[in-house]
Amino acid sequence: MPLNNVTTLVAEDSAAHTGATAQEQLILDEAFARRDGILQHLEAELATPAQDAVEQARMRMLVRRRAELQHAEQGLIFGRIDALDATVRHLGRVGIPSPSDNGDPLVIDWRAPAARAFYTATPVDPQGQARRRHIRTQGRTVISFEDEPLDGSRASELVGEGALLAALGERRTGQMSTAAATLQREQDDVVRADSRGPLVVQGGPGTGKTVVALHRVAYLLFTYPKLAAQGVLVIGPSPRFLDYIGQVLPALGETAIVSATCDTLVPGVGVERLEQRELAEIKGRALWQQGLARYCASRLPQPAGVELLWEGERYTIDETQTARTIASATSGRSYHGARAVFIQQVQDQLTDAVVARSEATMAQVEDGLEDLLRDFDAVFTHTDNRAASSGATGTDVDGMLTEEDIELLREKIADDDGVNATLQRWWPTLDTTRELRRLLDDEALLEQWVPELTDAERGLIAGEPRTWASSDLPLYDALADLLGDAIPNNGQGEFMSDRASAQRDWVYGHVVIDEAQELSEMQWQMVMRRCPSRSITAVGDIDQAEAPHRHTTWQEAVSAAFGDRWTEAQLSICYRTPMEVMALTGAVLRNAGSQNEPPRAVRAAGIEPWELSVTEGELAAEAARAVEQLSARWKGGMVGVIAPMERLTALREALPGTPVLSASDAKGLEWDATLLIDAPSIAAAPRGWNGLYVALTRCTQELGQLLVR
Ligand SMILES: Nc1ncnc2c1ncn2[C@@H]1O[C@H](COP(=O)(O)OP(=O)(O)OP(=O)(O)O)[C@@H](O)[C@H]1O
């Protein structure tokens, strides 16, 4: 082809491209105009105060819709899918309806079923689609677009490769960003998976587990709007991590969410100290659930006669009757739940006994009165017939109490301090803190109720300080659940999230757990208690596990909680860490004892990882110098430092303003560049190779290491 023809073709292509960009701009303009109109309308509606509960519920819905639309300033439209029948659909962060009643939506919400083909159509399985287009916008302006024909003329395992690589190459901000525009096929499968029953998602570092987990929350809330009333609980490994993901959910348009770590799940109880790994492992075992149940059952009263005093008279509820009452009250109930039923039943029995005795007494009095009247009548009959006509004799004064009298009596008995004090002595209310301390501090009690532990383990537990460590919280939660609330706690607050966070026994509609490989068996139990329906999504990497439990497979990790009733999904491509760095991880993983291969990296950064050997004396200054260089190279991005625990304090002093974390605390986080310090010492710690695997995989661009000689 002559050169000038090529030039003409390129010019034509570029003219067509410009024309298509202009067309997309028109559509984006229309979508923004409509979105702004809807927002104005919502503002006006929300200005009128709600009159009743129905209106309040509607207002809450409108507030959510307003938040969704406001957050969609970026990415109002990010994609388009053209069907073989020439139907064109635009996709965005939220749905934008057509201005006309019956018109097709201007923009389809990415979570809607009609949007699915955008994420899953392939040349092999085009699902009736001809082309996928990724549209890049900046605010209200279309910047560019990238087309992927689905006719097999271009094959890539990635969906929207250009847009994805652009997103992955961007500078990190310290906040996770949304990936709705570039979700990949295997990720989308997890996002939209059936929400019935537990789903465990295994994925190596940087495979998008957090991305998937958060987009799944947004998808579920969109697909099942009723979930918003119960809420979704998101559990992450640390407050720092929760902060890192904090912006994503509002940006995805979701507000019905409570986020927590396992250490903040129990209202009013917090972690007061660090603990030894050995103790954390012992206290994380599933056997405690049974042990605590046995201990709790031992605190129930034994059947015996109860003697109650009412208005100076003694009433006895005999042993057979208390045995029956205890048995019926305890079945399937917590300690305090059973206590409340028992007390109610005893109060009823006392009321019946008082009524019966009072009626018997009245009957006797009546009999006596009748005898008296009869004598009286006998005296006066012959002179006067008044008694017969007065109605003052016999059955008119029958001594029976009315229904109202009995109800009043029941209330008085229920409020009576004396009766309540006797019942409290007989079946006392218990305090969870005191009971757990009583058990944990006493080797004899531990031997009696948790016999699975060895003598040495019991000794270690009883010798701990009397303050709470992280592994105590699931025990506390389990015991609090077995005991139940002595006074029902109905959390207050305008928003679902306030009420849910305040109530230990709030039941969520769905729970998402990130870095789920870290959970101990008792922590899994704690999570399940908050979601008895088991609608749970757990994402994690069993090879990144650093917690003291000994699980090396998901089967081991979750079988105590779920038995065999859970499904597993896999994510296999690493989006975060460049190939050059991932090449270092295979050997580390093998040293960690894993049978798995690291995930395949999707991109190269073009920068080889480097290392520098320094003396102990040089370390602080060299670390500061390296951070300065990396920060200059990744200007506008972020540099993070990972070091062994014992070096953190000194390095934090030397590197003010730079995150300096242990491998555990870096879990889930990422930076443009990582400076890894003294890797051998990280590897030497318990589960240290797993920690090093985490540390190596935190960077999106560059890894530097300082080795101490
Ligand atoms: N489909 C996607 N589109 C754009 N960015 C993505 C996509 N998937 C993952 N990423 C990016 O890749 C990085 C890693 O994702 P994420 O943190 O979810 O991985 P992870 O599996 O949880 O990693 P780790 O277990 O190592 O913490 C993040 O920056 C995330 O935004």
Q: What distance lies between the first and last C-alpha atoms, to the nearest angstrom? A: 63 Å
Mean pLDDT: 89
The beta-strand count equals 20
Please describe the biggest sheet, giving its number of strands, its sense, and whether it closes into a barrel.
Answer: 6 strands, parallel
Q: Segments where pLDDT lies below 50 for 5+ residues?
A: 1-10, 380-397
The total tally of domains equals 4
For the largest beta sheet, what order do the strands appear in spatially?
A: 8-7-11-12-6-13
Helices, by number, come to: 29
The secondary-structure class comes to: alpha/beta
Strand content of the residues, in percent?
Answer: 5-15%
Cα Rg: 35 Å
InterPro entries: DNA_helicase_UvrD/REP, P-loop_NTPase, UvrD-like_ATP-bd
Protein name: Helicase
Keywords: ATP-binding, Helicase, Hydrolase, Nucleotide-binding
GO molecular function: 3'-5' DNA helicase activity; ATP binding; DNA binding; hydrolase activity
Short description:
With 709 residues, the protein is an alpha/beta fold. The chain has 29 helices and 20 strands. It folds into four domains: 16-159, no CATH class; 211-296 and 433-568, no CATH class; 306-365 and 403-426, no CATH class; 579-708, P-loop containing nucleotide triphosphate hydrolases (Rossmann fold), CATH 3.40.50.300.
What does this structure look like?
This protein is an alpha/beta fold and 709 residues long. The chain folds into four domains: 16-159, no CATH class; 211-296 and 433-568, no CATH class; 306-365 and 403-426, no CATH class; 579-708, P-loop containing nucleotide triphosphate hydrolases (Rossmann fold, 3-Layer(aba) Sandwich), CATH 3.40.50.300. Strands 8-7-11-12-6-13 form a six-stranded parallel beta sheet, with helices on both faces. A hairpin with a 2-residue loop joins strand 9 and strand 10. 39% of the residues are buried. Mean pLDDT is 89; it is low at 1-10 and 380-397. The site of adenosine-5'-triphosphate (ATP) has 23 residues, from helix 4 and helix 6. It comes from Arthrobacter alpinus. One of its GO terms (molecular function) is hydrolase activity.
